[in-house]
Structures are given as C-alpha cells and as structure tokens.
Design a protein that fits this description.
Four copies of one chain form a homotetramer. By secondary structure, chain A is α+β, with helices and mostly antiparallel strands. Chain A folds into two domains: 3-148, Up-down Bundle (Four Helix Bundle (Hemerythrin (Met), subunit A)); 175-386, paralog of FGE (formylglycine-generating enzyme). In chain A, 33% of the residues lie in helices and 13% in strands. Chain A is built from nine helices and twelve strands. Chain A has helices at 3-18, 37-56, 67-71, 95-113, 119-148, 217-225, 237-246, 283-292, 300-306, and strands at residues 175-178, 181-185, 201-205, 208-211, 254-257, 260-265, 268-271, 316-322, 348-352, 368-370, 379-380, 384-386. In chain A, the strands form four sheets. Chain A has a four-stranded mixed beta sheet. In chain A, a hairpin with a 2-residue loop joins strand 6 (260-265) and strand 7. In chain A, helix 2 packs antiparallel against helix 5. Chain A is globular. The mean pLDDT of chain A is 95. Chains in contact: A-B, A-D, B-C, C-D. Chains A and D meet through strand 3, helix 7, helix 8 and strand 8 of A and strand 3, helix 7, helix 8 and strand 8 of D.
Chain lengths: 387, 387, 387, 387
Amino acid sequence: MTPAQSYAKVRAHTEQICKPLKVEDYAMQPFSFGSPAKWHLAHTSWFFETFILKEHVKDYQIYDEKFPFYFNSYYQTLGERQQRDQRAWLTRPTVDEVYSYRTHIDEAMHQFLNGDLTEEIIGLLTIGLQHEQQHQELLLTDLKIGFSVQPFDVVYDTHPMIPDGEVLSNSSPEWIEVDAGLYEIGHDGDGFAFDNEYTRHKVYLESYQISNTPVTTGEFIEFIEAGGYENFKYWHDEAWHWLQDEGIKLPLYWEKDGDKYSQFTLSGRIPITGKEIMQHVSYYEAAAFAAWKGCRLPTEAEWEAANHMFSWGVVWEWTNSAYLPYPGYKKPEGAVGEYNGKFMVNQMVLRGSSIATSPNHSRPTYRNFFHTNLRWQFSGIRLAKDA
Amino acid sequence: MTPAQSYAKVRAHTEQICKPLKVEDYAMQPFSFGSPAKWHLAHTSWFFETFILKEHVKDYQIYDEKFPFYFNSYYQTLGERQQRDQRAWLTRPTVDEVYSYRTHIDEAMHQFLNGDLTEEIIGLLTIGLQHEQQHQELLLTDLKIGFSVQPFDVVYDTHPMIPDGEVLSNSSPEWIEVDAGLYEIGHDGDGFAFDNEYTRHKVYLESYQISNTPVTTGEFIEFIEAGGYENFKYWHDEAWHWLQDEGIKLPLYWEKDGDKYSQFTLSGRIPITGKEIMQHVSYYEAAAFAAWKGCRLPTEAEWEAANHMFSWGVVWEWTNSAYLPYPGYKKPEGAVGEYNGKFMVNQMVLRGSSIATSPNHSRPTYRNFFHTNLRWQFSGIRLAKDA
Amino acid sequence: MTPAQSYAKVRAHTEQICKPLKVEDYAMQPFSFGSPAKWHLAHTSWFFETFILKEHVKDYQIYDEKFPFYFNSYYQTLGERQQRDQRAWLTRPTVDEVYSYRTHIDEAMHQFLNGDLTEEIIGLLTIGLQHEQQHQELLLTDLKIGFSVQPFDVVYDTHPMIPDGEVLSNSSPEWIEVDAGLYEIGHDGDGFAFDNEYTRHKVYLESYQISNTPVTTGEFIEFIEAGGYENFKYWHDEAWHWLQDEGIKLPLYWEKDGDKYSQFTLSGRIPITGKEIMQHVSYYEAAAFAAWKGCRLPTEAEWEAANHMFSWGVVWEWTNSAYLPYPGYKKPEGAVGEYNGKFMVNQMVLRGSSIATSPNHSRPTYRNFFHTNLRWQFSGIRLAKDA
Amino acid sequence: MTPAQSYAKVRAHTEQICKPLKVEDYAMQPFSFGSPAKWHLAHTSWFFETFILKEHVKDYQIYDEKFPFYFNSYYQTLGERQQRDQRAWLTRPTVDEVYSYRTHIDEAMHQFLNGDLTEEIIGLLTIGLQHEQQHQELLLTDLKIGFSVQPFDVVYDTHPMIPDGEVLSNSSPEWIEVDAGLYEIGHDGDGFAFDNEYTRHKVYLESYQISNTPVTTGEFIEFIEAGGYENFKYWHDEAWHWLQDEGIKLPLYWEKDGDKYSQFTLSGRIPITGKEIMQHVSYYEAAAFAAWKGCRLPTEAEWEAANHMFSWGVVWEWTNSAYLPYPGYKKPEGAVGEYNGKFMVNQMVLRGSSIATSPNHSRPTYRNFFHTNLRWQFSGIRLAKDA
C-alpha cells in the first residue's frame, strides 16, 4: 500500500466504527476516563493537522483556530486545552462540523501524501496512524461503557464489527515451561514501535511456567463462587479498599440473576456460558484471581520471552510489571515526548492485544498500560508461576 | 381561549424556545442543578401523560414503558427515576424520538380536551400548563449556562426571544413608604395558584420603606469597586466561605477587562453600560449588596403588601424570607403533594417574575424559591429598609 | 451578687464541667462542628481578655501574643485564627498552660471588677458571662459526642452533673388552644438579651394548638416502628437524601438490640424506657415526626406567645422558623456584630433551653439556632397544629 | 547480647524518643498517613503480646480485651480495628495507661525471654524488634510533621537525638561507573531480612553511572530557581496535577523569605546553607529533579549492585523501581503474611536508611516503600544515568 492508501484505510476504519451511532451518541462521556466519540473523531484529525500539515505544508491554514483548544488531549507543549472531564460540555462544533473537519484534513493529507515524502514524514505519518488506531480501540470501549449506563439496554449494534463477549477458549489450560537464562526484550527497530518499547535489552529470568491460554469466564465464576470477592487475603490492601468503597462484587458489565451470569456487550446483554475468554477485569481482580489459584501474573519480560509459544490477541493481558522506562529509554524532544514518558508511574503494563485492537496494530513488544482499578478495556488474565 | 387552545399555545411556546438549537445542544447539562433541553421537552409531556392521560383516558396505553423512568423528575410516589445529575448520560431516546413523543401526547391531549371536561380535569390541565411554563423559564436559563461554558462564545440566538441583559432601569431609585399595620398576603383563590400560595392570611408589618425599582448594574459596579467582594463584613458567614471556596469576585456571566465590564447573554457577550437592571445574583450577593448600602432585602410579606406601588417583572427579586409553609398550608395527597412542600427548608423566596417567565405565568402572590448560592436564574435585588 | 461574684461563679462552673476529664480528654474533636475542651477553656478566657482587659485595663499586657491566633473562634475583625476543624492539631499550649492562662485572666478580672464599673463594662461583662455559659453547654455536648465515638463505652462521669437521658415526661400530652390575634414577641429590654432577640415587635397569629409537653422516646419509637425512617413522604427532600447518604435509621446515640432500645449518655449506655423526653434529634427528624403525626412544629412566634402555658427547659425545641433578623434588628458595630447576624441564613430556630443549659441562662425570648442536620445538642420536639 | 538484652535495648529506645513529649503531644495525628505517638507505643507492645505472649506463653491472659481493637494496625486476619484516620479519636487508654501496658508486656517478655527459646521464637522476637524499630523511625517523622503544623514553632527538642537538617555532604559529586553484566540482589539469608528481600536472584544490568553522594539542598535550590516547579516538562503527568492541586512550590518544611531558605526541623526552624543533604522530597520531586539534571533515578538493582562503592545512610533514596515481588517471593501464611505482600502495588522503592533509622536496622538489601506523593520521611535523591 502507498502511504496515501494506508492513510485512507485507517481513517475509513474510524468512521466505520461510528456508523451505528445516532448524532446524540457521539456525546457520551459518563466517566472522565473516557471521551465522547465526537472528540475522538476530531482529536485524531487535529493530530495530523498539528504534527504534519501545519509543520510541513507550505502556507497551510489552520482549519479553525479554536479547534486546537477543543481537541488537544494532553499536550502541554501545545498550549491550553479543554479540561478532560468536560469534553462532553462541548456541543459545538457539531457532529456534522466535525465530519467536515475530517474531510478537510483528509483532502489536505491526500494531496500531501501524493507528493514526495521524506523519511521524517513517513515517520510522522506512521505515528499519526498508530495514534488513530489507538483511538479506534478507545472508541469501541468508550462507546461500550456509554451504552452500558443507559437505563435500558440500548445497543451499539446488533451485529457489531467485533465478537464482543463471544470468543471461546479453544484449548484447555496447560503450563508452558521456560528455562532460566538471559533473554532479550524490547523492540529491535524493525518496523514501527513506540518510544517506550526501546531500547531492546537483556533480562535475566529465573525459570517459570506460563499458561498457554487466558483465563475463561468459567474459571472466574469459580473464584466468585468460592467467595473470592469477600476474602481479603487474595487482594492487595488498596484493592480491598477499592472493593469496599465501590461496592464491587462482580466483573464490569456482569450481572447475576439467580445462578445465571450475563454480561453487557456491544450487541446488548448476553448469557455467560463459562467458555468465553474473560474480559474487563482490573489489575486488582487479575492479581486476586491469580493469588486464589496459587499462581501469579507474569512479568512483562516473562510474557514477551514466551509469547511465541502461546496464542494471544483476544484480550490485553495484565502483567505484574509496573509501567517504567526500559534501560536506555530516551524521551523524545518536543510535544511527541509527552506521548509515553510522562505516564510512567503508578500504572501497570498489559501485553498482547484484544479483539478491539485495530488490524495491524499489535506486536509482541507492545506495552499498553492502565491504572490498576480500570476495567473498561478488553483486559484479561494469563497465569504464571515459579517453576 | 378553549382549554385545547391554551394547551396548544403553551406547548408551542416550549418548542419555540428550542428552535435555535442544534441536535447536540439538546444534551447540555454542565451542572447538576440544570437539565438538558431534551429532558425538559420530554418531562413536560410525561407530566400530562402521567397525571391526565393515564388516569383519565380510557384504555390509554403508555407511549413507552421506559419513559417514566427516564423522565420523572423527583416524584418518589411514582417510582424509580434516572439520577438527576446523570440525565445527560441518556443519549436515547433521541431528540427526534422525543419530538415524536410530544406529538403523540399532543394528539392524545387534543382529542381528550375536545371532549367534556370536569372541574378536576381543568384543574389538572392548569397545573400541567403552569408546570410546563416553569420549565420554559428553566429551559432558557439552562441553555444560557450551557452555552456560557463553551470555550468560545457560542450563541443561543443572535436575536433571542427575550431581551437578555438589555432591560434598562427607567426610573431613579425612590423610597416608597409603607405604614405599619395588618396586611393580608397569600392567594385568595381567584384564578390559579400553587399550593404554597395558600392560605391567605394576616401579617402584621412594622412600617418600612421599599425601593420603587430594582438595583442596576451601575449600582452593583459601585459595590464591586468599593471592594464589596473582599470585605467580610457585608457577607453572611457561609456566603464568605462560598466566595473563598469558589473564587467568586464578580456576578455570574460577568467579565472585567481593564475597567470595562461585559456579560454573557443568550445573544453572546455584550458590554455593560451601568443602566441595565441587575440579574444573575445569588441570595448571598443580594444580601451583601444590601448590607453595603445600609439597607436590607424586603421580606416576602413586605414585598407583596407593597407590590402594587412599584413595577416588577424584569428579574425575580430575592427576599429575606425563608421558603416555609404559610399558616394553614396543607400538602396535597399523592404525587402532587411532592410539588412544593418537600422543598420547604434551606431555600429563600424570590418574588415577582422575570423576562424569562412565560406569558401569563406571574402574579403578586407567586412564591419562587432557590438555594442561596444559585445564580443562573434571572434573579435581582430590590432594597428595603426600616422606616 | 456583685459582678465579681457572678464572674467567679460562672467561671467555676466551666471548670466544674471539666473535673472528670483526663488530660487526654481535653483534646477530643472527632467532628468539625465541635471543639476540644481545652479550646473552650481558653477561648472563653480570651474573650474576657480581648473585649475587657485589653480595652479597659490601662497598660494591660496580652498574656501571650500567640493566644489570639489559637483561641479566636470566628471573629474576622480580630484577625487570623486557627482553622476550626484543625483545633485538635494544637497540642500546645498544654492543658496545664491553659489553666494557668485562666488563672491569670481570673486574677486580672477580679482586680478589675472590684474597681468602679461603668454601664458599658457591666454590659461587656454580661456578654462575656453569657458567652461562657453558651460554651458550658457546648462543652457538655462536645464531650458527649467525643466519648461516644470511643470504641468501647468510656464514660464522662458515672454521676454526671446533669440527668442526661433520664428526665421523664410528667404529663400526658394535651393540646393548648391559642386564639388568633396580635401578639408581641422579642425582648423588652428588661435584663440581658442577645442582639438577635430585638426588637420586640407585633406578630399576627392564626389560632393554633400547641402541646403541653415535649415528645417522649416512646412516641418516637412508635414512629420508628411504623417505618418512619423508611417512608419518604414524611421527609423534606434534602432530609431524605441526608438519611440515605448517612445511612441514618435511628436518633443519635441510639442503638437497637432485638426489640430493646438504648442510648449513650454522659454516664454511659442506658436502656430506653419510653418515658424519657426525646433528645438529640435533628430538625429533619423533628419535622418528619410531626408530619407522621399529622401535626407540625410550632413557629417561634407561636412558641413564645404560648410559652407561659407549658413547661419547658429539658430540651431545646425545634421550631419551624428560619433563623432570620427580627424587624428593626441592628447588627452591632465591630467584632461583637459578628456574634449573631452573620449566621442568619440556612439555620432553624430552637426555643427554650435544655438540661445542659447553664443556670440562669434561659428566658422565653432566647433564640438558639442550628443547622437542620445537627443532632448533638439536647434538641427535642414539641408538636403544634392548626386550630 | 542475649535476646532479653536486645529486647530491653530496643524497647528503651522507643521510650527515649518520647522523652521530650508532653502528654498532649502523644495525640498528634494531623494527617491520616501518620499515627499518634501513643498509638505507636501501644501498637508495638500489642505486636509482642499477639505474636509471642498469646501464642507461646502458657495461660497468658490478654492484658485488656479491648486493646487488640485499639492497637491492631492493619491485620485483617486478626479482626476488626480502629479506623486508621480516627486513631486520634481515642483519648483512652491514657498515656499513663499505655505506659503501664508497656511495662506489663516488658515484664512478661523479660520472664519469657529468660527461658528456653526455640528458633521459631527467636525468629518472632527478631520480627517484633525489627517492627518496633520501624515504628521508631515513624515516631520521629510523625512527631516532626505534628509539630510542624502547630501555628507557632513548637519544638520537639532543642537538642534532638538525631541531627535533623544538619548533615552536610562531605564529598563533591562524582560518577561511579558500573559495568554491564549479571548481578545478584536480594538477601542471602545471613542475618535477619524481611520477606520482601527474598529470594536472592540474578539481574542483568546494562552499564550505568551512579553518583557517589546524595543531592544537596544547594543543588535543589538551583532546580527551584531555574523554575523547576513551574515547568511541566520535568514532571510526570500525575505529579504535575499534584503540584497544581496542592499548590506545591517548595520541598516539605521549607520556607522562602526573600532569597533565604529555611526548613523546619525537630529542633525548630533553621536556615538552609546549601551544603545539607536534601531530605523530605517525594518521588515526584526526586524524579523531576533528576529529569532537570538530564539524569534519572537508579533502579533498586542498580543501587544495590553498587552500594558498596558509595556511602549511604543519611536519607532514604528514592529509586525508579516499583515495589513488586522478587522472583520466587512467597507471602508467609497467616497474619505475618500481611506485613509486606499486600502493599506491593502503586508504591516506589527507597533504598538505604536515614538518620532517623534505628541503630542496627539497615542493610543493603532493605526495601523501603512509600507512595509517590509522600514526603514526611527522611527521603532524598541519588542520581544515576546511562553509561
């Protein structure tokens, strides 16, 4: 594919995700950790305008001088911005106006991408497309939680583009043995990677075992029914307080009616059979489940060193590694330096990718990260233990 | 006018208010004390459906069984309801669907009102229309605050239906003298009144003076420039804490640029000339201003006893009376009893009416009430003092 | 009694109240609405030092320049002060040092009061003593709540100076009829009164009935057992939210064990027999109880107009009057003006006095006031109804 | 030393720390992260009573059945306990009673320790003593912050037992080079160590440089004066919000008056000369300082691998390692298992020890840990960088 074709394909996918929405649905922001769909649509366009068009197209005129304020996410280098938890306050620009903005950016980008492109431009384009793909996944998870708080089951799509809640585990759990020794992890520079995947470096691992398959809903139900949510000894101290403060007794989106469990999905509420791969757990829940099983979560190095020996890609998998810089990590200069480095504290790493991850947006070195209490991503559990 | 004509006229006025809105604007709810326009449109229809159609039309089918949950405001008698500060979470029903609901209710009401109507029905109809008129005023004030928090001046209407911020005072302030003696206040039963206006009763008033005209922006600017917002001695103790906690230094919607003051209105930001009647002050600010002037606010009895001697109707006027039951007040039975009585604590009474009050919705006995810190209504100040 | 004798007597009573305390108990401040005993002891002394010694004794030297900061309560006129909810942070001056401060003030006052005293001085002295008496009652109620939150029943005194929880009702409830007409309320200037009891003025009252006796624990238990705390229709809207938010199902200090009720008192936990006069209810609970009985609370004018026809003095009695200025009320100049006027918003008036009120500190015109959710005072209920 | 002698020595040291206190000072708890001195005194005794006397002394009678509730810190296994942020509510037992409790425990322990002791008992004794030493350091830091919030400089001791704020750096900063390679970290089992120091394991380190000396106040002043607290680019995103929310512009205990800096210490406020070793910084500040210097914090493995090449022991040194289990870590069974493991999330590791650390309570493998915003410990900065 040419750069222009890649660009067109990624951009179309974003709009495809929004296809089932009514105008009103574009404004959903029930929780401050998520954003309205309208904002995602505009922010991703602003990203191309700010980092490519404005910098590299001669005489380019900013589409609307107000948009940088509206649609900057967190780049302090780039000036003031709408407060995150007040993004839903913005009723203007309207959804139509945001689509016009996208069209304008797409036309300008199309023209630009059909010219001569330097390495640097290709690099920026790639970041822009990777960035938009990250927002595609967030769009799906933000929409899911937005629909879930409607008082009656309002459905994103009766046939959504991803098999939410429907991927069954296709193997019974077995332990993969990994020998102690020196391993290399991190990106080797072949193909795109984010700054946080560098530098590739050696780690020494003691021997360990890692499961060939993520935990299923059936296994998690055993934990629930064994009183897992009521027994402090499986939980971190702050996790236990979180359970009490929030009154949490089930995974996100789950309900229990008699002895039947169901979950809310992008196509509405569906029964849980026990065979599905578990999704939407917090780090706290993942760690507690592992403790109850007498196991633990793998570190990210353990995960990466063994990833070729198991299949992954249905859910992001919580690791027991904090999100910290690799040896030799360098924060890039300028606004792009705010992309990853400033979040490297008090979050945990997730590895792999999920059914909501966009096509061609996963690799074994990818380091996703979230706060330990968050569960609205498609996040699941893979067990490990000492050998 | 026939009942059906009255109904049609009031209902049309609500929709008239929404004319300038984009679909997205119907969802504005930046603060939990206000509601989205979509909700107002639906709630007022639900009121007719619940109290008239459902009760008095044979075989009437509820339009949608989910709507009572969505659109009940605070009637506990009528069951569970959407939490007030989460009304903006509802993206469905859509604006179009809400208009369809209104149309359905209007057709059913039209048919019903063209039949034989008992006294009781006329009574319920009147309450429903008065109720809708109250929401018309709230619609305007909720939209005003919703537009005001957009980061750039987005305008409700360049030629809004009401002269927001533009009514000038047409008389210089003079004191009206009122003699001590027994007065009667409260509604005498001639025409409609809410339950809280009953029973008409005697009050003894000491002699007092009351201003012939509300306070202007120019007078309020004198207060500001005399350091009124920085001097605790004019303020109630809790008002002083409110000022510090919220960082308040100006009336709502005001900005000061150099020595120029401007205010945000339904038609955007406009300069303040000093001649306008002051609007959007809290009780706290009204009382502090009065204290600075060496005056006080009138009680509601003083206001009512003298109201025929001055003109009112531009702003709701804060009184120094707490919102409490009149002697002989009876809370009606059933859901209608939740209309007024349960709010009779920790609020202050405002008298008169404002430019945003709907036609034919004001009378000298009307008791409006709000919490002492709220300022998004068209609320102003009339001074009084002991004789 | 000479002024010096009055002074000595009141001061001794304060120390009498603290007799049963250990040094540690002087620091109790579990809730920000109360204050540590040490603070009360010092603050009352500071009051005499600030308003009398410093102003009227030639060459008087402030005992310690830091004490005004420590022990000023809320007088903004008198400068910065320790934040109210951080009074317990102060471990110094120690209890011993505070007693030394009291001794110093007492000696200086004694010498001063044995000289020639002007009317003005007598007036200031009287305010100082009345003020100290108010703090005596607060001391008892602050100590009561401080002991109540100790995890095991720690007792203020096995034979406390007041019969906490033990005053039985000595008459069966009867209605006193009061005719409609003009009444005078407020203080006539004979003897001491606070500024808020002025000016005496006429009020017109419709005919009403008022109970000859306060509500008993037995009557309140009927309310509880009829589901009073679970039925929204008896409660103000904000009271209902208060119940839910705080999880309140019983009056303060009450516990229910099987079908037995008990209450925590200054002498520990004791059974409730049903005969005791009800104490420690909030305005919310008082109003809800009255609504359940088909009655209402009296206004303060109704209470005062009839007070000679019933006995009172066991509990402060909630009225349905907001704490607002009387006609002709003038806020005094200077710091003393902060005593009452600045609190005249969003509080309700209580009338009478309680078992914890100091001797000679009650009169029929006394206006006590608290926020509607507070219950740690000895506050009870007297019913009224329309005639 | 015999076990009984060790016990006596450690216990005496705790009481030594409390020597300068007035009774009132034992109740200080201005912030919920700290505890009152009285509580520390009792809790450490409860620890010996619970884990040794109660379990291993035949017919031992619990001193007071209420004390476990009062003085259990966070052991869920051992039942309900006083809420942490309400420890200051407890005025009883009094300070005297707590000392009596200590005496009782000491006598029982003395008798017990003079008998035959198994390995297990020695192990428990050692944990109890190490535990008490940890509380000795907390006592000093809790007292320091407690005295610091007194409105006027109240002093713990004019000649405190530790040289708070007075240790000067005795070497100019130089980089120590460390080669890449496999290192071993963690405790080898020789002498006491906490569970979190196990198991000793290999780590591969890239080559790096680490400073021979901690950062001084002079270096930190350069950061301040270069606008370090006002420039987002040195800070983690959540650190930047922390600065804004808390209004932080200086390290804890510092004040700036003109161009002079001073710090509050256990002996009161003293000038800062620029030569002192920097103390009382949060992880956020440590990381921001390092970023401003173009360096970084060492990981705990880097720190431990090089610790023999530099001197440490004045301040705890923040590392860039999250507090997570080592490979092979096993949480002990029972209550003791709550000691460390349940806190292994969202905290960062500090290495070394400080002037407030008790004698014989430090070793190169010790893993201290605190939340990233806390600064009331004697915590400082050592720089590292990639080779």
